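User: Predict the structure for this protein chain, please.
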Amino acid sequence: MHINSPYPDLPPLPNCNVHHLFFKSPDQAPWPDYPIHIDAETDEQIMYSQMVHRIEHLSTGLVTPLSDGGLGVAGDHIVGIIGRNSSVSS
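Assistant: Here is the predicted structure, written as C-alpha coordinates:
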Protein backbone atom coordinates (compact mmCIF):
# COMPACT_ATOMS: atom_id res chain seq x y z
CA MET A 1 0.00 0.00 0.00
CA HIS A 2 1.39 3.40 -0.97
CA ILE A 3 0.48 6.32 1.30
CA ASN A 4 0.99 9.90 0.16
CA SER A 5 1.94 12.63 2.59
CA PRO A 6 -0.81 15.11 3.39
CA TYR A 7 1.84 17.85 3.16
CA PRO A 8 3.07 19.49 -0.04
CA ASP A 9 6.34 18.38 -1.61
CA LEU A 10 9.50 19.96 -0.27
CA PRO A 11 11.12 22.64 -2.42
CA PRO A 12 14.18 21.50 -4.38
CA LEU A 13 17.52 21.76 -2.60
CA PRO A 14 19.81 24.56 -3.76
CA ASN A 15 22.59 23.45 -6.08
CA CYS A 16 25.57 24.37 -3.89
CA ASN A 17 28.31 22.98 -1.71
CA VAL A 18 26.94 21.81 1.66
CA HIS A 19 29.74 23.69 3.49
CA HIS A 20 28.54 26.94 1.91
CA LEU A 21 24.95 26.05 2.75
CA PHE A 22 25.81 25.48 6.44
CA PHE A 23 28.45 28.16 7.03
CA LYS A 24 28.43 30.76 4.25
CA SER A 25 24.84 31.48 3.33
CA PRO A 26 24.06 35.21 2.95
CA ASP A 27 21.38 35.15 5.66
CA GLN A 28 24.06 34.20 8.23
CA ALA A 29 26.13 37.37 7.68
CA PRO A 30 24.25 39.49 10.27
CA TRP A 31 24.27 36.77 12.94
CA PRO A 32 26.17 37.70 16.09
CA ASP A 33 29.11 35.51 17.08
CA TYR A 34 28.12 33.16 19.89
CA PRO A 35 29.66 30.35 21.96
CA ILE A 36 29.17 27.01 20.22
CA HIS A 37 31.06 24.96 22.82
CA ILE A 38 31.86 25.63 26.48
CA ASP A 39 34.22 23.24 28.25
CA ALA A 40 32.57 22.42 31.58
CA GLU A 41 35.90 21.80 33.34
CA THR A 42 37.90 24.83 32.14
CA ASP A 43 35.15 27.25 31.05
CA GLU A 44 37.03 27.65 27.75
CA GLN A 45 34.63 28.85 25.06
CA ILE A 46 34.82 28.22 21.33
CA MET A 47 32.92 30.79 19.34
CA TYR A 48 30.98 29.99 16.14
CA SER A 49 33.46 32.00 14.05
CA GLN A 50 36.38 30.01 15.55
CA MET A 51 34.67 26.72 14.67
CA VAL A 52 34.11 27.85 11.07
CA HIS A 53 37.77 28.93 10.89
CA ARG A 54 38.88 25.47 12.14
CA ILE A 55 36.66 23.75 9.56
CA GLU A 56 38.19 25.89 6.81
CA HIS A 57 41.70 24.89 7.96
CA LEU A 58 40.65 21.23 8.05
CA SER A 59 39.22 21.33 4.53
CA THR A 60 42.34 23.10 3.24
CA GLY A 61 44.56 20.44 4.81
CA LEU A 62 42.50 17.63 3.29
CA VAL A 63 42.73 18.90 -0.31
CA THR A 64 46.28 20.29 -0.22
CA PRO A 65 48.63 17.97 -2.18
CA LEU A 66 50.99 15.69 -0.25
CA SER A 67 53.94 17.52 -1.78
CA ASP A 68 52.77 20.71 -0.05
CA GLY A 69 52.20 19.08 3.35
CA GLY A 70 48.51 18.26 3.00
CA LEU A 71 46.67 14.95 2.84
CA GLY A 72 46.00 15.06 -0.90
CA VAL A 73 42.36 14.00 -0.73
CA ALA A 74 40.85 15.22 -3.99
CA GLY A 75 38.54 14.11 -6.77
CA ASP A 76 35.60 11.84 -6.05
CA HIS A 77 36.48 11.05 -2.43
CA ILE A 78 33.97 11.54 0.35
CA VAL A 79 35.40 12.11 3.82
CA GLY A 80 33.40 11.62 6.99
CA ILE A 81 34.83 12.88 10.26
CA ILE A 82 33.36 11.44 13.43
CA GLY A 83 34.32 12.62 16.89
CA ARG A 84 33.08 12.54 20.41
CA ASN A 85 30.44 15.01 21.49
CA SER A 86 33.08 17.69 21.90
CA SER A 87 34.77 20.24 19.69
CA VAL A 88 38.10 19.36 21.35
CA SER A 89 39.15 15.72 21.39
CA SER A 90 41.94 14.15 23.44
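The helical segments are 18-23, 48-63.
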